[in-house]
What we know:
The structure is a single chain. The protein contains 19 helices and eleven strands. Helix 7 runs parallel beside helix 10 (204-211). It has helices at residues 18-28, 48-51, 64-67, 80-91, 102-108, 112-115, 143-151, 153-156, 171-194, 204-211, 213-221, 257-268, 282-287, 289-301, 305-314, 325-328, 332-336, 378-384, 389-397, and strands spanning 9-13, 32-37, 71-74, 95-98, 123-128, 198-203, 242-243, 249-253, 318-321, 340-344, 350-354. 29% of the residues are buried. It is of the alpha/beta class. The strands form three sheets. Strands 3-2-1-4-5-6 form a six-stranded parallel beta sheet, with helices on both faces. Strand 10 (340-344) and strand 11 (350-354) form a beta hairpin.
Amino acid sequence: MLKFLEGVKVVELGSHIAVPKAGRLLAEWGASVVKVEPPQGEAWRVIGNSYGTPYTDDCNPIFQAPNSHKKDIAINLKNEQGREVLMKLLADADVFITNTRLKGLQKLGLAYEDLKDRFPRLIYAHFSGYGAVGPEKDRPGFDIAAYWAKAGMPLEWCTAETGPSRPLPGFGDSTVATVLLSGVLAALYGREKTGKGEYLQASLYGCALWFNSSGIVQAQYQPENAYPKSRYDQPTPYHAIYQTKDGDYFFFSIPTWDNAYDKLLTMMGLAQYIGDPRFATLAACRENLRFIIPEFDKAFHSMTTEEVRAGFDSMDCVFEVVADAQSIVHDKQAWENGYLQKITMENGTEVVIPTTPVQFASAELPEFELAPQIGGDSKEILAGLGYDQNSIDELFGNRAIL
């Protein structure tokens, strides 16, 4: 079992995906993570209603990936006694991680300025939509807006003929979770040297710009070639997306085009164009894409997916069929590398979910633990904080704790 972070205590006041997934990774790597939820539970518990997946107490598969391996306490933070319970949790915590909006934290007395002197060794990680300052700092920011739309990717990843597509919500959040995790780990390492806590921030918008750095730099040198581009206005023939006889879309890449185009044309049954100056160099291809791309379309449409795959494999060329989620669940490569796992929900339903993507040679991942129920560990956590039974009963009676 992984115990790299054994002894690290994390208090997570998070909802949706970015903060909970960072907490999940910390938990799976050995940290003790306490998820703090409002009495009604956080919003991601019922997101299955929008996605067509179950979201009952005994079968909530979409809630598992961000929230397994944690303990859970439900606290009414508008209640003074509830806030005091949180303060007791933070008293010996190493990390406090939250995506509650700054205004809400300030109203509750939970902003960094409120806690830094009381808990000088605490690493306080705050995650927001648009950043901690500026005219948009208080705006709500799901990843579809603050990550995808604000950073421009939907226009870069489509063609002028099709217009932008709408990514699945949560994908951007998941990428950002790894950045947030990196910051927390760096702060923990830094505290070993200084003995002092840290305040760190990350945002959907800031991380999206980081991940889209190539596009942002490129735009400064090619302002006349604004996105979205036409399918026939690409830097290379392989930037266009093609389809096989079987109807499968695929991507391929040949960076050494000038030295390999003849092999590609032979594989495609277009050997008559070997030596044709329109095909021989990438520079020439760019001038002739309206001729080349339709020729490639016809060639690939005449080949089965397996024929295309075998051809690119024989060239040792970067190639992949665009998969659908249904086929991924059965992908042999994913299963043999341990990238997928089958879990059993409380009601006995089995579901496949991705595993933590980092593997360590010296230790295996712990056995999967289902995400906790709302307040499922409240009494145990309160007892661990030193509350006696009468005090626990009072907290529940006053609706400070669920």
